[in-house]
Specification:
By secondary structure, the chain is mainly alpha-helical. It has helices spanning 24-48, 52-77, 93-97, 100-103, 122-147.
C-alpha cells in the first residue's frame, strides 16, 4: 500500500524580488549576471568618454546594492539574517565569505523568511554547469581588453 506523499509548498523565486529565498544555483547565476553587467559596463567606459572616476561609481553602486539584495535572499534561505551580506564590504573577510553562501545548503522547509524556493529549472542548472567554462574564456579576454584600454590587440606582423 502506497501512502500519499505530501508535497511541501514552495514558491517560484523572481529575479528582481527584494524578499524571499533563493538557493545556491540561483545565487550563483544572479551574481554571475551582475558580474557580467559590471564587466560589460566597465569595458564600454573608454568608448563613452566619461572619466573613470565619474563612471565607475555610477556603474558599481547600483550593482553592489543588487548584489547585497541577492546575498540577503541567500542568507535568508540559510536561515540567517541578511545583515551577514555586509561582510562583502569588509576587506579580507569578503574573501572567505564569498564561498559560504555557495557551500552551505539552505533549509529544506519553511523558515522565518518564507517558503523554500522551487527546484531549479533546467536553464539555471545548465547555466551553472557551463559557468566555469565561460569564465575560463571570458576573464582572460576581459583582462586583455583592459590591458589594451579598449584597443584591439595588434596583429603580429601587421604594419603600424
Amino acid at each position: 500500500m502506497r501512502l500519499p506523499v505530501q508535497r511541501q509548498p514552495v514558491y517560484a523565486p523572481r529575479m528582481f524580488a527584494l524578499t524571499g529565498r533563493i538557493g545556491r544555483v540561483r545565487y550563483l547565476m544572479y551574481l554571475s549576471l551582475l558580474l557580467a553587467l559590471f564587466m560589460g559596463a566597465t569595458s564600454l567606459m573608454p568608448a563613452t568618454g566619461w572619466p573613470a572616476r565619474l563612471a565607475l561609481p555610477v556603474v558599481s553602486i547600483p550593482l553592489l546594492v543588487a548584489a547585497l539584495i541577492v546575498t540577503r535572499r541567500r542568507m535568508n534561505d540559510m536561515g540567517r539574517s541578511g545583515w551577514w551580506g555586509l561582510l562583502y564590504l569588509v576587506p579580507l573577510a569578503n574573501l572567505t565569505f564569498c564561498l559560504w553562501p555557495l557551500l552551505e545548503a539552505g533549509h529544506a522547509g519553511a523558515n522565518e523568511h518564507g517558503l523554500p524556493p522551487a527546484p531549479n529549472t533546467w536553464p539555471l542548472a545548465l547555466g551553472a554547469a557551463l559557468l566555469p567554462f565561460c569564465l575560463l574564456v571570458l576573464v582572460p579576454a576581459y583582462v586583455k581588453l583592459d590591458d589594451n584600454q579598449g584597443e584591439p590587440s595588434p596583429v603580429p606582423g601587421a604594419a603600424r
